Amino acid sequence: MGYTEFLSELEFEVLELSPFLQHLQSTFSQGELQRLVLSRHEGDDKELQRVIFRPVLLKGQTVLSALYERKTFDITKNFEISEAVEYLTTKLGTEFKSALLQTQGEEWQISFSKKNKLLQNRTKLKNAAPVAPATAHNREKRRFVEQSRAYLQALGITDASGQVVPAMSRKWKQINKFVEILAKAIRETGLQERQEVHVADFGSGKAYLTFAVHDYLQQLGISAQVTGVELRPALVDLCNETAAKLALTGLNFEQGDVQHFQARGVNVMIALHACDTATDYAIHMGIRTGAEIIMCSPCCHKQIRPQLQSPAVLSPLLQHGIHLGQEAEMLTDGIRALLLEAHGYDTQVFEFISLEHTSKNKMILAQKRSKAKDNRVVLEQIQALKAFYGITDHCLEQLLAESLPSNI
Ligand SMILES: C[S@@+](CC[C@H](N)C(=O)[O-])C[C@H]1O[C@@H](n2cnc3c(N)ncnc32)[C@H](O)[C@@H]1O
Fold first, then answer.
1. pLDDT tens-digit profile of 183-215?
2. What is the C-alpha to C-alpha distance for residues 400 and 396, in angstroms, rounded to an integer?
3. CATH assignment of 168-403?
4. 278 Cβ below 6 A of ligand 1
5. Model confidence, pTM
């Protein structure tokens, strides 16, 4: 069937840590350890977010290299396996509240509840790709998505041996870039500290990015509740089947139109390449539910173009349809970004991934401000732009005007 098969044990309370640490030691010595991720950090170093241990070859000997992922800069330190076990014995349950042990054929997640009860969830992966031998230290590179993740194989990004399928290499780069951007936003908005994070992905399509965000949050030790919303029923069924086969909890897909979807307490709103004004509906829903992060990559800008009445001086430029299209796109997205600014979000518009990888490469990333800011100037700028170009209707502006109090 092409799917890796999974057998998952239900999360239950266990009494002690030692079986987990013994498994770390035995899989390390057998060359079956892939990595160990410590997350939900609650120690004194407020900069520290995760620690990732990986086997590396150092002067002919395999050791564990620990990457301390910190807000401003990362630190790397090497451990003998016995030193690592000692470190984990003192830090797990005290400074780190979650750990994920990824080995050949198995994932073992442990977490500590608020009352510091030790819970675990073990998932066996049948037919999993073999773990690559430890490589030299200087080849280590910080990556946000591990090529060995099971969902990549289930979605056809990687093959049975864990290699990226050549035809999917652009998608693979896009997934990595997307997770990198999301990871930074999650850190900056403080969502990293939450126990549970709700995500809505509008126009999820084949859901490469939906699976990626779910996986990334789970690896941070956050309970991820991710919903993909998609018009096409066949894709919804396929994605739900894949999530069930991978025994993924908290990931589901719903058939529906973004326009009619009822949002319920979303922290992260994603709409990547959702067509035309579907992006406006998604942004609007994100603002309305108070999402901390709104991330979209707009596609096909149809609403503004027929309204444009540019000044005569621009007509030699805009006589070319491609320029008119670019102008309409810039205005549509520029006004979206300004509306987000006016409604409490710090907003950036940038190239998501180079054009070599996809032609749909613009990202609007909005992060909710912790403090309110005077928005009168921004609202005036929007009106001035609309007047200059003769724009009467902008979908997002209309949605906001209909749903939010008039003083915003
Ligand atoms: C180009 S695909 C992008 C898929 C995915 N977000 C990605 O970037 O890989 C756009 C998807 O949005 C869906 N879509 C378009 N308009 C929609 C709407 N109004 N409501 C829900 N889904 C929509 C389409 O069916 C399609 O699967």
1. 999 989 999 888 899 999 999 999 999 999 999
2. 6
3. 3.40.50.150
4. yes
5. 0.73
